[in-house]
Amino acid sequence: MTHDLSPATLAQLEQRIKAQLAEIEARMEPSEALEESRSRLTDELDRATQHADRQLALKQAQHDKQLQTRLRASLLRISQGDYGYCQHCGDNIGLKRLEARPDSLLCLNCQSLRELPSRVRA
Question: Contact at 8 Å (CB) between 20 and 70?
Answer without folding.
Answer: no
